[in-house]
Automatic annotation (TrEMBL):
GO terms for cellular component: cytosol. One of its GO terms (biological process) is glutamyl-tRNA aminoacylation. This is Glutamyl-Q tRNA(Asp) synthetase. Its cofactor is Zn(2+). L-glutamate binds at residues 7-11, 43, 179, 197. Belongs to the class-I aminoacyl-tRNA synthetase family. GluQ subfamily. ATP binds at residue 238. It holds the Pfam family tRNA-synt_1c. A motif ('HIGH' region) lies at residues 10-20. Keywords: Aminoacyl-tRNA synthetase, ATP-binding, Ligase, Metal-binding, Nucleotide-binding, Protein biosynthesis, Zinc. It comes from Candidatus Accumulibacter vicinus. A motif ('KMSKS' region) lies at residues 235-239. Zn(2+) binds at residues 99, 101, 121, 125. Residues 5-246 form the Glutamyl/glutaminyl-tRNA synthetase class Ib catalytic domain.
Length: 299
């Protein structure tokens, strides 16, 4: 791949856990194996959950594991003007519209569960606000047709946005820009052309591709890695009390992450210095070896 630009974009809601480390290792190795750049972005839009100390801890942990990123670390919380500009363009183009619906109102008439665990928006405000209603949020109009892409791990993917999620949120009722809008704006601004991330975000990809098309932005390639689960089948996260990774474990911890991604690591590399691990891992990396499963409990 020419001029490869990848990225790792953790949310600073807690320390780096093993599941996040797997995503970092996969994205880093794919970038370096393709002779490309690896950028680092802190996705701290969610003011209620993001913590500055967590962001600092994540950066220190990555440094301790000898990850080397290119350029400055981008903080989403400092880029609100860019999201506002994108939303304004969508509003002027008629692609975004105001919505007055509360969660209770949506739940009362939603046609089906959404693919992301929420509810398919019924389109109540699509034709305009009813008399006396005050806008609470802004939504993106979606087409009633398939959006398709070829995922480098999961294979061909198709999703009908109208049936899978409905018109989705761009600006929330609390004034916070939605992840879908921010990630599209940021990837384009940073020139990211190869996204490697967890498969838990696979169902968001069609929404992001639709936004890219409406904003006349390039669409990167996508590779969705299997996510690490606990014994109950839940994705590791702060909510499931995932333990922080210990960088003191060095190459052995990184080797466990790489083994999870279908690359067994020789004992001498697993027990060697970090420099030797990364040199071996970059040479050995192949996306074709990554398991296609969505969630895996490491045995």
């Amino acid at each position: 791949m020419n001029s490869y630009r990848g990225r790792f974009a953790p949310s600073p809601t807690g320390p780096l856990h093993f599941g996040s480390l797997v995503a970092a290792v996969g994205s880093y190795l794919d970038a370096r194996a393709n002779g490309g750049e690896w950028l680092l972005r802190i996705e701290d839009l969610d003011r209620s959950r993001s913590r500055r100390e967590a962001a600092d801890t994540i950066l220190r942990t990555l440094e301790a594991f000898a990850f080397e990123w290119d350029g400055e670390v981008v903080m989403q919380s400092r880029r609100l003007d860019h999201y506002h500009a994108a939303l304004t363009r969508l509003q002027l183009d008629g692609e975004a519209y105001p919505c007055a619906c509360s969660r209770r109102e949506i739940a009362a008439c939603a046609p089906a569960p959404a693919v992301d665990g929420g509810l398919v928006y019924p389109g109540s405000c699509r034709a305009g606000l009813a008399a006396g209603r005050v806008p609470r949020a802004w939504r993106m109009r979606v087409p009633d047709r398939e959006i398709a892409f070829d995922d480098r791990v999961q294979g061909p993917v198709q999703q009908n946005l109208a049936r899978a999620v409905g018109d989705f949120i761009l600006l929330r009722a609390d004034g916070q820009y939605a992840y879908q809008l921010a990630v599209v704006v940021d990837d384009a601004a940073q020139g990211v052309n190869a996204v490697v991330r967890g498969v838990d975000l696979l169902d968001s990809t069609a929404r992001q591709i639709w936004l890219q098309q409406c904003l006349a932005l390039p669409t990167p390639t996508y590779a969705h890695l299997p996510v690490v689960t606990n014994a109950a089948g839940e994705k590791l996260s702060k909510q499931t009390r995932a333990a922080a990774v210990d960088a003191a474990g060095g190459s052995a911890v990184l080797a466990a992450a790489l083994h999870f991604l279908g690359h067994p690591v020789p004992p001498e590399v697993r027990s060697g210095p970090l420099h030797d691990f990364w040199r071996w891992a970059i040479a050995a990396w192949s996306m074709a070896q990554v398991p296609v499963q969505r969630g895996v409990f490491p045995g």
